[in-house]
Design brief:
Oligomer: single chain
CATH superfamily of one domain: P-loop containing nucleotide triphosphate hydrolases
Radius of gyration: 17 Å
Number of helices: 7
Organism: Ancylobacter koreensis
Order of helices and strands: EEEHEEHEHHHEHEHEE
Keywords: ATP-binding, Nucleotide-binding, Transport
Largest sheet: 6 strands, mixed
Pfam families: ABC_tran
Bound molecules: adenosine-5'-triphosphate, magnesium ion
Family: Belongs to the ABC transporter superfamily.
Strand order of the largest sheet: 6-7-8-3-9-10
Distance between the termini: 24 Å
GO molecular function, one term: ATP binding
């Protein structure tokens, strides 16, 4: 995950737009991705094709370096595929410019990272509200307070990230991801920095959002217990889909 750029939160804010066509939540076809330049250039994704139904929970597993985080970045609109088709929430992402991609992320994708990625100079409520405010939502702070309360942090609204535990910081990140009511939630090892019980609470919040809001959930994980909670497991190896099966990973 470290090799990917930090998300620019100001550019991932929600903005009202017209509805897109219904259908698969995610549809990837022959996706190729190379990153880095010169000798450091790496061919990461090699012809990845994958469809995910609306409301489905998919666990993305595979060895370190197999391209899980990279694939998540592509389907979240944070990395641009070199070739192939990337359709998310009914929209083709290849060919969108940076501004259009940022609007797409703001409307449709909630992102949770292993390392929280909160803005250290902002309080919990500001971390959640400011992206909403930038997107023009008049009720940004009310909405942020409601989301933080829903994740059990109603009593920590004015704390800075450094004043919060790891689990609390990840709750803020979850509230921030859920606040724009995205249709797709992606999480890259969201429990990787947390103890088992705290990790389970974070996962409960994500699965609850999937169930209650009908969001599609894509989770990168090394945790077999977590993968088992998903409807389906996609295993990557060397940048390609190795297995794609309902239920428990092999
Ligand atoms: N910006 C980049 N430039 C060059 N190579 C990169 C870049 N980002 C990732 N890579 C390489 O792409 C490959 C896949 O990386 P990725 O982070 O997607 O793997 P991963 O499956 O998420 O691994 P892990 O389980 O360790 O997080 C790795 O070999 C990595 O070194
Ligand atoms: Mg990774």
């Amino acid at each position: 995950m470290q090799s990917h750029p930090q998300p620019d939160i100001s550019r991932t804010a929600a903005r009202p737009e017209t509805q897109t066509a219904p259908g698969q939540a995610v549809r990837l076809d022959g996706v190729e991705l190379s990153l880095g330049s010169g000798a450091a250039r790496v061919h990461i994704l090699k012809g990845v094709s994958l469809s995910i139904a609306p409301g489905e929970a998919v666990g993305l597993v595979g060895p370190s370096g197999s391209g899980k985080s990279s694939l998540l970045m592509v389907l979240a609109g944070l990395e641009r595929a070199d070739a192939g088709s990337v359709q998310v929430a009914g929209q083709e992402l290849t060919g969108l410019d940076e501004d259009a991609l940022a609007r797409f992320r703001g409307r449709h994708v909630g992102i949770v990272f292993q390392a929280f990625h909160l803005i250290p100079t902002m309080t919990a409520i500001e971390n959640v509200a400011v992206p909403l405010e930038l997107a023009g939502r008049a009720d940004a702070f009310e909405r942020a307070a409601a989301e933080l309360t829903a994740v059990g942090l109603g009593h920590r609204l004015d704390h800075y990230p450094a004043q919060l535990s790891g689990g609390e910081q990840q709750r803020v990140a979850v509230a921030r991801a859920l606040a724009p009511e995205p249709r797709i939630l992606v999480a890259d090892e969201p429990t990787g920095n947390l103890d088992e019980a705290t990790g389970r609470q974070i996962m409960d919040l994500l699965f609850e959002a999937q169930a209650r809001r009908g969001a599609t959930l894509v989770i990168v994980t090394h945790d077999a217990t977590l993968a088992k909670r998903c409807d389906r497991t996609v295993r990557l190896r060397s940048g390609a889909v190795e297995t794609d099966a309902a239920g428990i990973p092999a």
